[in-house]
């Protein structure tokens, strides 16, 4: 199989076949990232097509420094960020609430993510995270990137990425165990008032 760099050079020379090979080679990974980011199959499909269109339009700017896969993933990260800033996202219906309990409450959130479970509850919980935490969680646990790579892709400091991951995991623990701190503290407050 040809390297990404040789395919890029062929594309720059006008080869349609090389472009098809390159897209086919990376399509699944980019679709998976986009789907996990937006949580909607059809939207992810459309956005993946748009990401590859952006790739084709900007392939001349790829200079061969760094892995092509990371360069392409950077386009996907930015495209998803643009979507969340768009009016289309702002007017989208609210996501369904997460079920109160997982079948096994004792299972650790990190274990769920590291197993790459695609259960509806985990997806919904991840989708409820703030965008910056969701992005870090997806890149770490679903794309298997290192902290340094996530920092480069998101243009954040490594300490910021670590913080986002920790906060995201803590929030997921609350969501997957059935509610957030405010909901859990309400019964205690009501008991004190009686």
Which keywords apply here?
disordered C terminus; mainly alpha; Rna Polymerase Sigma Factor, Chain: A; 11 helices; 2 domains; single chain; Arc Repressor Mutant, subunit A; 194 residues
Task: Outline the fold blueprint.
Blueprint: H1 4-12, H2 16-38, H3 41-58, H4 68-85, H5 87-90, H6 109-114, H7 120-128, H8 131-142, H9 147-154, H10 158-176, H11 181-193
Please provide a written account of the structure:
The chain is mainly α. The protein folds into two domains: 1-93, Rna Polymerase Sigma Factor, Chain: A (Orthogonal Bundle); 96-181, Orthogonal Bundle (Arc Repressor Mutant, subunit A). Helix content is 72%, strand content 0%. It contains eleven helices and no strands. The protein has helices at 4-12, 16-38, 41-58, 68-85, 87-90, 109-114, 120-128, 131-142, 147-154, 158-176, 181-193. Helix 2 packs across helix 3 (41-58) and helix 3 packs across helix 4.
């Amino acid at each position: 199989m040809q390297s990404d760099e040789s395919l890029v050079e062929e594309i720059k020379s006008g080869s349609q076949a090389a472009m098809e090979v390159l897209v086919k080679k990376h399509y699944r990974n980019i679709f998976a990232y986009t789907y996990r980011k937006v949580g909607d199959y059809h939207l992810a499909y459309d956005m993946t097509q748009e990401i590859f269109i952006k790739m084709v339009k900007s392939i001349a700017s790829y200079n061969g420094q760094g892995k092509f896969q990371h360069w392409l993933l950077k386009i996907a990260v930015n495209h998803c960020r643009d979507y969340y800033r768009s009016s289309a996202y702002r007017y989208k219906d609210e996501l369904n609430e997460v079920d109160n309990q997982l079948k096994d409450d004792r299972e650790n959130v990190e274990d769920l993510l590291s197993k790459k479970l695609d259960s509806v509850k985990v997806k919904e919980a991840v989708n409820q995270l703030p965008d910056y935490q969701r992005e870090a969680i997806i890149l770490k646990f679903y794309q298997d990137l290192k902290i340094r790579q996530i920092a480069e892709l998101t243009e954040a400091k490594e300490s910021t990425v670590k913080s986002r991951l920790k906060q995201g995991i803590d929030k997921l623990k609350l969501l997957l165990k059935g509610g957030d701190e405010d909901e859990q503290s309400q019964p205690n407050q009501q008991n004190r008032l009686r």
